[in-house]
């Protein structure tokens, strides 16, 4: 998959995000990992609209058209954990944010770059490739100083499971996550996509 030119990111905004403690989605701030948690309002409807529990990791499951993928709003290479390859990286892409009622849907792509690809290798899941890092995305509404974690509905509804699908280097794993939407007058937010990737600033919500 061709690499996209990296989007310029702001270190100052990253520092701001780390200082924010307010949250618009209740106790999500205390437990940013939504796996195994209970339902929470709009998460079900928007999660179903974003993707399907079938064929997890495909573009369709993330709510994307594989024949007409949008241009990413940000892309960056981060280290990846691949056995026997200390130089492996992962290209992480963020696609445009979509407002759906009281929620915002984010969609992502993860592609591992490694010379150790083997046809007999079953690959690994996102959790394994990230190593010590984690995939706990969140939004920052800097206008109202609020931090939005993934809604607690279940990992299959509000966020793609990162231990449910394996993929090989060179293949792309697509994913989605659903957040409580900021107020209607907020049309731009900052996005923390994954550990090791710079905070993406000024992302428009369409």
Explain what this protein looks like in three dimensions.
The chain has 206 residues and is of the alpha+beta class. The protein is built from four helices and eleven strands. Strands 1, 2, 3, 4 and 9 form a five-stranded antiparallel β-sheet that branches. A four-stranded antiparallel β-sheet has the order 7-6-10-11, with helices on one face. A two-stranded antiparallel ribbon has the order 5-8. The chain is globular and about 50 Å long. The two termini are 26 Å apart.
Write a brief caption for the model.
With 206 residues, the protein is of the alpha+beta class. The chain has helices at residues 11-19, 43-50, 126-130, 155-158, and strands at residues 74-79, 89-94, 98-100, 103-113, 124-125, 138-141, 146-149, 166-167, 172-180, 188-192, 200-204.
Mind sketching the topology for me?
Layout: H1 11-19, H2 43-50, E1 74-79, E2 89-94, E3 98-100, E4 103-113, E5 124-125, H3 126-130, E6 138-141, E7 146-149, H4 155-158, E8 166-167, E9 172-180, E10 188-192, E11 200-204
Antiparallel strand pairs: 1-2, 2-4, 3-4, 4-9, 5-8, 6-7, 6-10, 10-11
Distance linking N and C termini: 26 Å
- Could you give the count of β-strands? 11
Count, helices: 4
- The coarse silhouette is globular
Give the uncertain stretches in residue-range form: 1-49
Structural class: alpha+beta
Which tags fit this structure?
alpha+beta; 5-stranded antiparallel sheet; 4 helices; 11 strands; 13% helix; disordered N terminus
